[in-house]
Sequence to fold (163 residues):
Amino acid sequence: MKVSLRVNGKDYLLEEVHPLESLAEVLRERLALTGTKRGCDTGGCGMCTVIIDGKPIYSCIMLAWQAQETSIVTVEGLETEKGLDPLQEAFIKNFAFQCGYCTPAFLMVAKSLLDSNPNPTEQEIREAVSGVLCRCTGYAGYIKSIKEVAEQKCVKNPEDANT
Fold:
């Protein structure tokens, strides 16, 4: 079947996609967007998290054809011509990751959270990242980084802090 996807602002038309092919498979194997990791292929680990229409979604349990007519953002879509996303910079600054396998998923969850809630509480941050499993860290670096970026956003946009 033909599948049309919009990924990181770019349109793709894939001529032959199997109806049971997951979005994670298509992103990694056909579009070479390997920042989206595959861990369990059952939606249990969160490694495959991407942002679809502003929400974090496990791409391993979504069929590629189901993502048509949506806007998909992968970790590769965070960087702009201006440079790294502030979350990426904060993760590096705070040594948030160790092996790095789960880092793209944490970035996507954090980006989605801060886009919808620019001033989350620590509990809201913890709840947002709870769907991504990490066996290397204690999550402290990730949480610290997300809090820092939230605080920076609130300082830059103090009127948004009250909404």
